[in-house]
Amino acid sequence: MTLSLKYRALLVKLFYKKGDCAEIPLKKFRLLKGLRSGSVPMTAFGLRKMIDKSEELGSFDVKCGRGRKSIASTSVEDVATALQEASSRALGTCSARRISRTLDIPVRKVRKILRNILQCYPFKITHVQELVPADLPEREAFALQFLARMEVDHAWTWDILWADESHFHLQGSVNTQNCRILARENPSKCNHCLFILKRSLCGAGLRQHLSLALSFLSRLVLRVL
Q1: Which of 93, 145, 91 is nearest to 122 (CA)?
Q2: Cα radius of gyration rounded to whole Å, the chain
Q3: Is 25 exposed, middle or buried (0-12, 13-18, 19+ CB in 10 A)?
Q4: What band does 201 get if pLDDT is binned at 50, 70 and 90?
Q5: Which of 114, 155, 182, 218 is the most exposed place for a label (fewest CB within 10 A)?
């Protein structure tokens, strides 16, 4: 429990009022402040130590610490510039580690600047496939082919081991695992990419001599969670 200057003065007053006894002032302080039994601001030893230090220094105020180096304004400007340049890219994503490597600044310092000074927080994004009318013929042809095969062999589908679909981006330019958008507020919007990613959709197909795989040209939409 951190004591303010007012509460420290009250403890010192109770200490001298009760005849240099450390236990009684703590109990009295707990009753005056409505604290629960056993909940005291400090121990009797801590109170005596505070009194001895106040008598030595002539003040019972908290001494100021050794202090920490302030963050230079140039570092803040460099981080803000790097963040603005990253947000203007196609994906609009950035990371503290990338800024740290680019500017040769410790990553811990970059995170402090982003959160404490620039008030920016990381928001995770996810990619969503955008279906357009031109994609309908490919999917319709696959569905008709699948139904036609079922008419020939009704037990054909029972020989297929179905699993969750997995997307493999051939260019490897999108990885949403560590993809973040740094902003002051959640954008809550979709960013349409200006390029088309070719990916391979493996939907499931495992039989003795059957392997089912399709390739689509998929337009990518990034949505902020």
Answers
A1: 93
A2: 33
A3: buried
A4: very low
A5: 155
Phi, then psi, of 180 in degrees rounded to 5: -135, 155
Nearest to 217 by CA among 202, 190, 195, 187: 195
Spatial separation of the C-alpha atoms in residues 220 and 175, rounded to whole Å = 12
Tens-digit pLDDT profile for residues 93-120? 677 888 888 899 998 899 889 888 888 8
Residue 187, amino acid: P
Are 199 and 175 spatial neighbours (Cβ–Cβ below 8 Å)?
A: no
- Taking residues 121-140, what's their average pLDDT? 75
Q: Considering only residues 136 and 33, tell me which one the structure prediction assigns the higher pLDDT.
A: 136
Q: Which of 160, 137, 166, 147 is nearest to 208 (CA)?
A: 160
Residue 31 has, within 13 A of its CA and on its CB side, a CA count of 7
**Residue 71 pLDDT greater than 80, yes or no:** yes
> Which two tokens mark 99?
């800024």
Question: Residue ranges of the domains in the chain?
Answer: 5-57, 73-119, 121-151+176-198
In the chain, DSSP assigns E strands to 121-130, 166-169, 180-183, 190-202, 214-224
Instruction: Kindly state the tokens that stand for 169.
Output: 């981006």
